[in-house]
Q: What sequence folds into this?
């Protein structure tokens, strides 16, 4: 029978696992209202078992990335400089204000 791991040993193993997977800890500042919103969403979106915070955020990141790729595929070349604004910055907004310029009329297509 093996001896149970101490909490220190479990934590060390978890850190090693995360390091080998390339997992990095990120922090963000959110208001009380936003924390309440996340807690409710974790519970409802998780189905029978609520998502953990890490699960919820990673699912959001992956879903948003897929949506961004879908939208990015629909972006047309700029009518003014004839460049794809996703692949290059085109005129980088130099002609913003001209209705034919992507940065004037359609740049919000990729924004959240």
A:
């Amino acid at each position: 029978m093996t001896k149970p791991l101490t909490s220190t040993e479990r934590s060390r193993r978890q850190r090693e696992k995360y390091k080998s997977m390339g997992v990095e800890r990120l922090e963000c500042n959110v208001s009380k209202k936003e924390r309440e919103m996340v807690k409710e969403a974790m519970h409802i979106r998780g189905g029978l078992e609520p998502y953990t915070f890490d699960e919820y955020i990673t699912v959001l990141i992956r879903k948003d990335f897929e949506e961004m790729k879908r939208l990015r595929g629909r972006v047309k070349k700029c009518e003014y400089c004839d460049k794809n604004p996703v692949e290059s910055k085109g005129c980088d907004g130099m002609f913003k204000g001209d209705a034919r310029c992507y940065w004037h009329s359609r740049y919000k297509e990729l924004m959240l």
Remarks:
- Residues 76 and 84 are 6 Å apart (CA to CA).
- The chain has a mean pLDDT of 86.
- Helices lie at 7-21, 32-45, 53-74, 102-105.
- The chain has two domains: 28-74, 76-112.
